[in-house]
């Protein structure tokens, strides 16, 4: 497993983010807007619309996530920040909806919602390093709770379908299941 240098995604790192996501914008042009935009808007948007949305979000700050570098190359991304910054993650109909003791509008309630890794490095444990860095990042920035809604398993360890992360990664990082609204998709929490 490569040792990562993990840093917040700021506008000066846009080109690295763009290089990691590629021309299509990762995950079929999503540009990590899945939990940021309502489904109707996402469907209407082009990949370029999503890219512009994410660029504007990065420019306004604070950093919406963390970039991981290996040997100076951007290789992995994790979206992390206050729940309020990812409105669709909080939708009452989703398995990731907040619990009463962790409201979405509370600045100290954070979530890890998405991952993206370079295809040739998937399944090599980089997400473990990212989650550890994310816990430190959240704690330094005033988070009290850090939540995630991963999946127990995917058909393939390298599947892009694991964009929400793997339950085993969060368990190893000290997260505990706090709700189960759909089999295989636990809502997990780390108390900081």
From TrEMBL:
Keywords: Transferase. Residues 4-192 form the N-acetyltransferase domain. The keyword Cell membrane does not apply. Signal peptide: none annotated. It comes from the Bacteria. InterPro entries: Acyl_CoA_acyltransferase (IPR016181), GNAT_dom (IPR000182). The lineage of its organism: Bacteria, Pseudomonadati, Pseudomonadota, Alphaproteobacteria, Hyphomicrobiales. It comes from Oricola thermophila. This is GNAT family N-acetyltransferase. Gene3D superfamilies: 3.40.630.30. One of its GO terms (molecular function) is acyltransferase activity, transferring groups other than amino-acyl groups. The keyword Transferase applies.
């Amino acid at each position: 497993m490569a040792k990562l240098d993990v840093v917040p995604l700021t506008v000066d790192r846009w080109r690295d983010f763009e290089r990691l996501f590629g021309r299509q914008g990762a995950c079929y042009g999503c540009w990590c807007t899945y939990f940021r935009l309502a489904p109707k808007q996402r469907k209407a948007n082009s990949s370029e619309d999503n890219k512009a949305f994410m660029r504007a979000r990065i420019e306004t700050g604070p950093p919406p996530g963390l970039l991981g570098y290996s040997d100076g190359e951007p290789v992995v991304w994790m979206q992390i920040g206050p729940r309020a910054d990812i409105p669709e993650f909080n939708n009452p109909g989703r398995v990731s909806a907040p619990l009463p003791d962790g409201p979405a509008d509370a600045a100290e309630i954070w979530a890890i919602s998405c991952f993206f890794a370079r295809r040739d490095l998937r399944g090599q444990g980089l997400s473990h390093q990212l989650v550890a860095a994310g816990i430190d990042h959240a704690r330094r920035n005033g988070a009290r709770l850090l939540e995630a809604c991963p999946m127990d398993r995917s058909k393939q360890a390298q599947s892009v379908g694991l964009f929400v992360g793997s339950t085993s990664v969060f368990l190893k990082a000290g997260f505990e299941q706090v709700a189960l609204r759909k089999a295989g998709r636990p809502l997990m929490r780390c108390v900081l």
